[in-house]
Amino acid sequence: MSRALLNDLKGQRFWQHFAVHALSAVGLIAVLAGLYDVFFPDVAEGVGTWMTIITVGIALIYAAVRSWPRPIEQQYEAPNVKISLVRGDILEQYADHLVIGMQTTFDTEMPRIIARTSLQAQFVDKIYGGDVKRLDGELDQALSDKVPVGTITKPGKTKVYEVGTVAVLEQATRSFFCVAYSEMDAKNVARSSIENLWRGLDQLWREVADRANGGTVAVPVLGGGLARLSQILPAQDSVRFIILSFVFASRRERVCDELKIVVQSEQYDRLDRLEIQAFLISLRAS
Questions:
Q1: CA 79 to CA 16: how far, in whole Å?
Q2: What mean pLDDT is reported for the chain?
Q3: Where are the transmembrane segments (predicted)?
Q4: pTM here?
């Protein structure tokens, strides 16, 4: 049994669902047994013990089947879109458009400015083969129609773009949406805020709607790492934050066919995934 499944089975929400379904099954069987006893009283005599055992067994099996943790996903009709939560490495979602969080300066120099352990550094290594110059050239081209809002004196890049700026790097079959939702200071310390993240997501969905041509967009859990939001926006809340932003944007216009939130294994095991599924269900249009 996997650690993730074990955590789901130990969660309060699982047992709440289990109890509700078990009691519902017992109630239905009791009603049917009562009706049967009315019409066939002689047949029902003497089977009380066996009926109790059968009822409990059926109720437990029914509750387990209905409550057992399943893939976290939800298909919506209005808007017509699917949202799913998966465990894995976002850079291994080879068929999907990818979202990569960046700073308003779009710095790329490693390891002096961008930590080797960050998703951005892994993006450079795995997608660009460590070729920072190539990435910088494509970023410059993608930002050529964006007007910087200022400059900053610091090592690395000095042009500052507006929070929410998205540089779209296009490949043959997919695109990389590099969204700036954190800001660098003069010491190259990146920081973000709830407001910046919301603004970044809003602009991201607009760019995805214009450039992705449907398909699946994979996004990591945003706000941790260099953005330094994990204390006020832990992974569980970040997932809900991303979902809520995407649903609102999709009600405004069609963004894409599917949003896939990709969570690293160590974070995935700590999530209350049944709560996230309940949250997804609650967002269905009434």
A1: 30
A2: 86
A3: 20-41, 47-65
A4: 0.79
